[in-house]
């Protein structure tokens, strides 16, 4: 009950922030000036999800004057919009209301499972403070807007909890739905691979029965398959083998132009674009080193091992495929286990300062990424 009370209070605070921003929001590509909360919560990618829900995916890819694939619906997975469409069809509730409702419910579920994950290794008070940080995090408005993140985080938390509990059979349906909600199958497969290697390594002191070996390897292979399946579906529907990857690359074309996806090159490209050559590349290398050192600290070792393995796997996945721009803050949400580390100090002064910083950062993120200012290039 305490977790839900924290969640509700946090969402109320975010609602006030969104209403204030909506009251001064000018006319934009999605709404008229001073939109209602519901309309304001459905801008940006919410429009793409609505297009998918009611009109599906294009069988012919849009090609620009440059001859390259332009932005289109294939960049977004169908789990969230199809769920919303089904619920609106059954209930008659309008899209804008249902998206917020589903995101709120999934966010509440995520907060509850997050608390269980923290309690695996952390005391009750620390775990509850971690929940507070999770609920007021800078990108926590995602829990009440028309984005798939809330649904995805709930599924990811459930998947991680099942992994920690060695419930491999139940992972199959969760991984399937999760992989069609946000791109995650390959990252989770990597975490599963780390998990299997570790269990094999310690098998003498912690038995790794044959049944669990078979099931864990099977769910890893399954995660790889469903992680690649959307690429195959896009290919089959459009007749173009690179439909999905080139659609994703269209979003970075505004920064660095059109190019092929080279694993682990995107952050160097992005760093050099933002900070210049060679400063950008140097900063990226330093960030990677700092992250590695941080993951080796005593505080991080307080978190359950499987959660740490997930953090490493997901960080590697982002490093391999993502081009750093304003959406990076949202895409860092799956690193949520690290909030347990932030919550470790018990000083009241420290905790008060952290809460203030998180709320201020949430307001700053909304100003920079959610509010629309003319020809805006800082999408959430």
TrEMBL record:
UniProt xrefs under PANTHER family: GPI MANNOSYLTRANSFERASE 2 (PTHR12468:SF2)
Superkingdom is Bacteria
Main localization of the protein described in the UniProt heading:
endoplasmic reticulum
What is one cellular component GO term in this UniProt entry? membrane
Record's keyword terms, sorted: Endoplasmic reticulum, Glycosyltransferase, GPI-anchor biosynthesis, Membrane, Transferase, Transmembrane, Transmembrane helix
What residue ranges are annotated as transmembrane? 97-115, 145-164, 214-237, 249-268, 274-297, 309-329, 349-372
Picking any one GO molecular function of the record gives:
alpha-1,6-mannosyltransferase activity
- InterPro entries, sorted: PIG-V/Gpi18
Recorded source organism is Subtercola boreus
Q: How does it sit in the membrane?
A: Multi-pass membrane protein
Which protein, by its recorded name, is this? Glycosyltransferase RgtA/B/C/D-like domain-containing protein
User: Single Gene Ontology BP term?
Assistant: GPI anchor biosynthetic process
What pathway, per the record? Answer: Glycolipid biosynthesis; glycosylphosphatidylinositol-anchor biosynthesis
Subcellular location(s): the record lists: Endoplasmic reticulum membrane
């Amino acid at each position: 009950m305490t977790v839900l009370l924290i969640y509700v209070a946090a969402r109320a605070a975010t609602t006030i922030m969104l209403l204030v921003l909506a009251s001064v929001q000018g006319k934009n590509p999605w709404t008229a000036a001073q939109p209602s909360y519901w309309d304001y919560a459905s801008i940006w990618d919410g429009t793409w999800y609505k297009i998918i829900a009611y009109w599906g995916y294009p069988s012919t890819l849009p090609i620009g004057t440059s001859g390259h694939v332009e932005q289109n619906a294939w960049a977004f997975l169908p789990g969230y919009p199809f769920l919303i469409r089904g619920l609106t069809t059954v209930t008659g509730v309008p899209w804008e209301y249902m998206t917020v409702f589903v995101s709120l419910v999934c966010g509440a579920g995520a907060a509850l499972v997050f608390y269980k994950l923290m309690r695996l290794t952390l005391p009750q008070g620390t775990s509850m403070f971690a929940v507070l940080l999770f609920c007021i995090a800078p990108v926590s408005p995602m829990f009440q807007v028309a984005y798939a993140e809330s649904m995805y985080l709930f599924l990811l938390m459930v998947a991680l909890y099942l992994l920690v509990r060695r419930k491999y059979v139940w992972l199959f349906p969760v991984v399937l739905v999760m992989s069609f909600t946000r791109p995650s199958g390959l990252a989770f497969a990597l975490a599963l691979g780390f998990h299997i290697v570790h269990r094999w390594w310690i098998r003498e002191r912690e038995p790794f029965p044959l049944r669990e070996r078979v099931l864990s390897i099977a769910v890893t292979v399954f995660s790889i398959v469903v992680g690649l399946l959307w690429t195959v579906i896009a290919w089959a529907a459009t007749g173009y083998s690179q439909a999905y990857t080139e659609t994703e690359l269209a979003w970075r074309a505004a920064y660095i132009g059109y190019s092929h996806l080279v694993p682990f090159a995107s952050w160097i490209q992005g760093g050099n674009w933002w900070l210049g050559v060679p400063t950008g590349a140097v900063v990226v290398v330093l960030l990677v080193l700092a992250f590695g050192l941080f993951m080796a600290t005593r505080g991080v070792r307080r978190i359950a091992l499987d959660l740490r393995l997930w953090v490493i796997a997901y960080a590697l996945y982002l490093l391999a495929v993502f081009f750093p721009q304003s959406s990076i803050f949202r895409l860092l949400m799956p690193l949520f286990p690290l909030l347990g580390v932030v919550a470790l100090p018990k000083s009241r002064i420290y905790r008060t300062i952290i809460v203030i910083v998180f709320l201020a950062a949430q307001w700053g993120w909304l100003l920079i990424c959610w509010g629309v200012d003319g020809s805006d290039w800082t999408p959430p």
